[in-house]
From TrEMBL:
Protein name: DUF6638 family protein
InterPro entries per UniProt: DUF6638
Organism: Shinella pollutisoli
Length: 433
């Protein structure tokens, strides 16, 4: 992972925590979770407060996600809203955290001046044993505490203020007045500063969960659709009257579901030609084939002429694998007719020539699923499915790893938003990208 770290392709854009008072607040939050304090004098955190350095120190990647449900969080500063989420069991953790930050901006801004917030994103289940447990999660509640007990002190001060204004002669209680002054020195004027979060309950929308090898859950008005390995416990048995189940290797049904629910943008010249997506995937395919035949090749030094020569010499392999000639024919068809008739394309190849509908709220989740169906395209996998990318990266040869890092640095990292907009039509940024 050293190359990924140096290129900031893993754990990039994290916030350094190095001031002693902030480290102490973080440690008090760890105390609240019953986790051993950190001895580090500097570490970095993501949007949820997860630190890769503390995870290494504890020897536990899941120290803020102990049962891979009811995710814990530590908020040190409002600036965390602009950070990615680098370790999570649910694809919508970043979206939920964003909703929490946005709905409670005033309280978070006020509290984090003197304190840190911590707690759990509580689901309706405490452990996930089967698919039914995942389907039970309809909404989440943020249970919020504060490291220096600022929330508790603000609540106490509020009750004393109420007593002062409602109880006759309460102003004569010197002990109460002295306590109010003491609390006000710590919390400030609670009439001006909102120290209590306004909204703590949020809906749990469509998502991917990393349980049972990965589960996709899509929500429509009258039905829920689950896509995963059919060996997952509860597959086709949990809520069969409400849930439609599709096996992850059933390409035809997956495609038909995504297309019929208007989650896909079908191949049309209007977006295919300006996006360059087919050409991009063709190049990814050849790079993968070169690496498969000779993992020692330095692909980063291979120019277009070298690649053309390689394809001529390995024409049989290219034709047998079939992806590259299919994409070339797809480009010619789109240029000549303006579209491709999906019914004439084999189900397993259809994912190569579509992308998620940019206007659908599930576009990131759909693109994640599509990237899993197009394994040669490691760039798309990195953009939409970092867990899958990192797992695949571990299996690459050293030479191919160098090529992958160089390609991502040269393309995606140059301008992430522009890259996503051009290839995938995404016009809004994503908090976890």
């Amino acid at each position: 992972m050293k190359r990924l770290l140096e290129a900031e392709l893993i754990y990039g854009r994290l916030l350094p925590i190095e001031e002693p008072h902030l480290i102490e607040r973080y440690n008090k939050a760890l105390d609240g979770f019953g986790i051993r304090r950190t001895a580090l004098s500097r570490f970095r955190i993501d949007m949820t407060g997860f630190s890769p350095e503390i995870a290494d120190e504890l020897g536990d990647r899941d120290y803020l996600d102990p049962n891979r449900v009811n995710r814990r969080f530590i908020v040190m500063t409002p600036e965390q809203v602009n950070l990615p989420v680098v370790h999570t069991s649910f694809s919508n953790t970043a979206a939920l955290m964003h909703e929490f930050f946005e709905a409670n901006a005033r309280a978070i801004n006020a509290i984090t001046i003197r304190d840190a917030l911590y707690g759990e994103i509580e689901d309706s289940v405490s452990v996930v044993d089967d698919i039914d447990d995942l389907l039970s999660i309809n909404e989440v509640r943020f249970r919020v505490l504060s490291a220096e007990d600022m929330l508790g002190k603000a609540g106490e001060l509020r009750s004393l203020v109420d007593r002062l204004t409602t109880v006759p002669n309460a102003w004569a209680d010197d002990a109460m007045l002295n306590r109010m002054v003491e609390l006000a020195k710590q919390t400030g004027d609670i009439r001006q500063n909102a120290l209590v979060p306004d909204q703590l309950v949020f809906r749990h929308e469509a998502y991917w969960a990393n349980h049972f090898g990965g589960v996709y859950v899509f929500l429509d008005e009258k039905t829920t659709t689950v896509i995963c390995d059919p060996a997952a416990p509860g597959f086709r048995r949990s809520r069969p009257w409400q849930v439609s189940y599709i096996a992850l290797d059933d390409h035809r049904r997956i495609f038909d579901f995504l297309a019929s629910t208007k989650r896909l943008e079908l191949p049309r010249a209007s977006w295919v030609e300006p996006s360059g997506l087919y050409q991009h995937r063709a190049e990814m395919t050849i790079a993968g084939l070169v690496n498969r035949t000779d993992p020692t090749v330095d692909l980063d030094r291979a120019d277009r002429i070298w690649l053309q020569t390689w394809m001529h010499r390995n024409a049989g392999l290219v034709a047998e694998e079939g992806t590259y000639p299919f994409l070339q024919e797809a480009m010619r068809t789109v240029a000549a007719t303006g579209e491709i008739k999906i019914t004439e394309v084999a189900p397993e190849r259809r994912f190569l020539i579509v992308r998620a509908a940019p206007d659908h709220p599930d576009q990131w989740l759909v693109n994640r699923l599509l990237s899993q169906m197009v394994p040669h395209d490691f760039v798309s996998r990195f953009v939409f499915d970092k867990q899958g990318f990192y797992a695949a990266y571990e299996q690459f040869s050293e030479k191919f790893r160098a090529y992958v890092v160089a390609t991502l640095t040269r393309t995606y990292l140059q301008d992430k938003a522009a890259f996503r907009r051009k290839l995938f039509g995404i016009r809004e940024d994503n908090p976890n990208a």
